[in-house]
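It is worth pausing here to work through a concrete case rather than discussing structure prediction in the abstract. The textbook approach is simple: state the sequence, then state the predicted structure, then interpret. We follow exactly that order.
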Amino acid sequence: MSQLDQNNQNNQLKPTKDQKDKLNTYARFSGIVIQMMAIICVGTFIGIKLDKRFPNENNLYTLFFTLGFVIASIVFVIKRIIAASKND
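Step two, the predicted structure:
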């Protein structure tokens, strides 16, 4: 193989800058989704534990803590998206 053919083949294997940017964006937002799920799970866990400790008819602790942590996770995501858009 000539040097020119080898250089062309190496350039085809390397991802372009646009592909790297897309991958970085995908990774960033995937991490945000995982953090959002973790926040909601923590709230639900706290609510379940409180309902076991202080039983009530409608599992109100679980409902309120889950709802509260869902709202908190949405606020967290919005702040992260705004910060990411300012950086870009």
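Step three, interpretation. Residues 39 and 72 are 8 Å apart (CA to CA). The helical segments are 3-13, 17-53, 60-87.
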